[in-house]
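Entry:
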Amino acid sequence: MVTGPKRVWEKGVGGRTMAFQTPLTIAEVLKDISSNRYVLPAIQRKFEWKPEQITNLFDSLMREYPIGTFLFWHVEAERVEDFKFYKFMDDYHQRNKRRNEPWQPFGEANGVTAVLDGQQRLTALNIGLRGSYARKRKWGRWDNPSAFPKRTLHLNLNAPASTVTDVESKYDFRFLTEDQVNASESDDRFHWFRVAEVRDWSDLFLDASAYLDDHSLEKNAHARLCLSRLWNLVHKDAVISYYRESEQDIEKVLNIFIRVNSGGTVLRYSDLLLSMATAAFATLDAREEIDDCVDELNEVMKGFAFTQDLVLKSCLVLTGVPSIGFKVRNFTTSNMSAIESAWPRIREALRTAALILSRRMGYDAHTLTAGSVIIPIAHYVYRRGLEEHDINKSRFNDDAAAIRDWTRRALLKRGTFGAGLDTTLQKARDVINQECIAGFSTAAMDAAFASIGRPLRFVEEELDDLLDSRGGSAFSVLALLFPDFGLTAEFHIDHVFPQRDFTIPKMRKLDLEPAEQQAILDRRDRVANLQFLTKTDNLEKAAKSPTAWLAGLSNTDRAARVGDADLGNVPDSMVGFIEWYEARRERMKTRLTELLGVALGSGMAGAEPE
């Protein structure tokens, strides 16, 4: 912890104190970094700056440009061991040392200072004045240790940068190897001063004069200017302006971190929690494993659009963490240890669940309207110990049918996976643990969801909404209406009347009134103008009108297509489209009424609250 600076300004926000402190010198901060009184919380990302970013920072400081305010978090002694912290980077190596070393508490009586905003800048200063930077040479091989030479920061005392390399910089800072420094000794344009030396100088006049004399630079005005400015920058100028946050509630601290680090890019709370999980994992890299899992899930069959958040939430659900909210209190060492231990099974369960959704139900990224539905399915798979080969066997058929029925109704019922998602998932987990021991029970799941105000029952008004739906919801409606269609094979969702016929110019040629034209356009993508076709059939149908397509089939095939898809009497042109559409829609509504057990005449007043 940094001691000494007095509080000069503070502001109370909701019981929290944010204080602006007396600025510090670089030397003071680096001393505390070297003593591990400054640490990095697990929520910080790894060091990412390139050498030119570090040299630009030093050039800006030498020119007295502002480099922004820092945000430090004082962690009290009794809270230090509650969190995971890391040491600052001294010697960066692009291959061997890209991650910060864990920091272990040793009874810090005054607590520690964690850097919430400014890690990259402070690490850059620390590397420049205390460490080194090893980056792969161009064309070097990653497996060759000599391709990563150690470089330290140097300042050219013989000439400013504007006359050497970079018109944007005034001072010529570079990361150089020892061989590069030695090779330039005979070149009058350069005299490379190792920047770290100035850190140990206690007196500008004595130490700088001695260096200039020893290297025959006493008459070099630029050299004298550089050393004077550098010494003052490190030891005298208080350039580290910072706020000091004293709040000990980690949830509030994380919200502060999100605000100050977003910078135009959305920084998600779950990203920070995943960083904490990564810190707590003993042998695996949680972020890498979860990112790989997301990629694997999204490559299943036609592809999905699952997220990092969903996989992280699944970890909490499947391992039985009592509270599954994205809160720090749920990311304890014991919980993270349980997740790491179970991770191979969690990943396999999620992949198997994705295969059930795709192979057994036909869903993909465009038709799966709520990705969270995979979590209860994955939990059932996890509890039953099912694997990919199990779901392809006939003995899984009953389970597949029950899961399919529940999934489609859960996706079609508005709000099932909306607000209050954690409550929904916890309830689903409880009923799977207790009542789905021998098989997936839709009755038990329905009763459980009804008990939390999310009944999977529908009223007549909802049927109208379902039949008027488009996109993913339309797929689920069609899947309910035509359960005998083989969604396990490659299939397409086809427009019975092709999309190319739904244009104003074509309808004008048919002498349709403007109001009728608009009514036809409005119905183009709705359920009653859609049907399932195999890939082969759809390619053959192409953009033909339904009558032209059916005319090209044999009598037997034509009757089968009309009957299987409930097409009824298809008109020859768009003139009779609306009458045909409404008749097919009414037949669909009758079947949905039976399938979903809806009492006709029921209204929204009879529905239970969501």
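The chain has 23 helices and 15 strands.
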